[in-house]
Design brief:
InterPro entries: Patched_domain-protein (IPR051697), PTHD_SSD (IPR003392), SSD (IPR000731). It is a multi-pass membrane protein. It is a single chain. The chain is an all-alpha fold and 291 residues long. The chain folds into 3 domains: 179 residues, no CATH class; 28 residues, no CATH class; 31 residues, no CATH class. It is 64% helix and 0% strand. It is built from 9 helices and no strands.
C-alpha cells in the first residue's frame, strides 16, 4: 500500500519472524532431547516458512474481513471473529502436516526419522506462534492504524495544510495519502471482488463444471500412470550422520571408482584351507578366469 498508515510491512515481517521462532524452538527442543541433526533437517525451515506464511495470509485476510463487517467493534470482538474464521483452517492444515511427519518417524532410516521429528515439532510450534504471537501483532498493528501512526516510526501522522503542499511522494510517505486526505479504511480488496463477481459465477456454470470434471479425470489418470513410472533414488550420503564413516566412503568411491561400473564379488561359501598353497593358487586361477 502507498499509504504510510495502511502499509503492513511490519505485519508481514512478523509473520515471517513467527515461522523463524518456530524453527528455533523446535530445533532447540530436539537438540536438547538428543535427537541427531542430519543434513536433511536443513531443508525443514523452508517447509515451515511456506506453511507459516500461508497461515499469516489467512489470519490477515480474516482480520480485514472482520474489520470491514464490524468497523466500530472492540478489538476483542474483532480478534474473536478473526479466530472464528481462520483458526479452523489453520488447525486442520497443521494437524494433517503434523500427522504426516510424525507417521514418518516410524521409518527404519535414522536420518529420515530425525527429519520427520524436527519438521513435525516445528509445525506444532508454528501453529502455537501463529495463534498467540501473530494474533497479538495483529492487534498492535490495528491500534497503530487507529491512532493514525506511521508504519515505520509509529509517530502520529496528521494532514496539515502547510505540510500538504509537497510532492505526491512526500505526501504518501510522510502524511498518509497522495491525495492529501486522511487515510481512510480501505474497501474490499480487488482480488476478492474478482473472485466474487467474475470467477465464482464462471466456475459454477454447468458446462464449466463438466469441463472441470473431465480435466480432473485426465489429471487423475495421468497421476496414476506417473506413479507406475517412479524410480526410487536417493543420495545415500543423506541417510547417514554427518560424522559417519559412510560419507567419506561414498565420496572416495565416487571419486576413484565411479568410472569402472558396478563392483563384482565372488563369495566362497565353504571352508577353505588357505594355508595350503595349492588351494591359494586354485583361487587365484579362478579369479583370473573370471576376469
Amino acid at each position: 500500500r502507498l499509504s504510510c498508515i495502511r502499509n503492513n510491512i511490519w505485519l508481514a515481517s512478523c509473520g515471517v519472524l513467527s515461522s523463524g521462532l518456530a524453527v528455533l524452538s523446535s530445533f532447540g527442543l530436539m537438540l536438547f532431547c538428543g535427537v541427531p541433526f542430519v543434513v536433511t533437517v536443513a531443508n525443514a525451515p523452508f517447509l515451515i516458512l511456506g506453511v507459516g506464511v500461508d497461515d499469516m495470509f489467512i489470519m490477515i485476510a480474516s482480520w480485514e474481513q472482520s474489520s470491514r463487517k464490524k468497523e466500530k467493534s472492540s478489538v476483542k470482538s474483532l480478534l474473536a471473529e478473526t479466530y472464528a474464521e481462520a483458526a479452523l483452517s489453520v488447525t486442520i492444515t497443521t494437524l494433517t502436516d503434523v500427522l504426516a511427519f510424525f507417521i514418518g518417524t516410524w521409518t527404519a532410516f535414522p536420518s529420515v526419522r530425525s527429519f520427520c521429528l524436527y519438521t513435525g515439532t516445528a509445525f506444532v510450534f508454528c501453529y502455537v506462534y501463529t495463534m498467540t504471537f501473530f494474533g497479538a501483532v495483529l492487534v498492535l498493528n490495528h491500534k497503530r492504524e487507529k491512532g493514525n501512526r506511521h508504519w515505520l516510526t509509529c509517530m502520529p501522522v496528521g494532514v496539515d495544510e502547510d505540510q500538504a503542499e509537497g510532492s505526491c511522494l512526500y505526501n504518501a510517505c510522510c502524511i498518509g495519502s497522495c491525495s492529501r486526505q486522511p487515510a481512510q479504511p480501505e474497501g474490499e480488496h480487488p482480488m476478492s471482488i474478482f473472485f466474487k463477481k467474475y470467477y465464482g459465477p464462471f466456475v459454477t456454470n454447468k458446462w464449466v463444471k463438466l469441463l472441470m470434471v473431465v480435466l480432473y479425470g485426465a489429471y487423475l489418470g495421468g497421476s496414476a500412470y506417473g506413479c507406475t513410472q517412479i524410480r526410487e533414488g536417493i543420495d545415500l550420503r543423506n541417510l547417514a550422520n554427518d560424522d559417519s564413516y559412510v560419507i567419506p566412503y561414498y565420496d572416495d568411491d565416487e571419486k576413484y571408482f565411479s568410472t569402472y561400473g558396478p563392483r563384482v564379488m565372488v563369495v566362497i561359501t565353504e571352508s577353505v584351507d588357505y594355508w595350503n598353497e595349492t588351494v591359494r593358487l586354485g583361487i587365484e586361477s579362478c579369479a583370473q578366469n573370471l576376469e
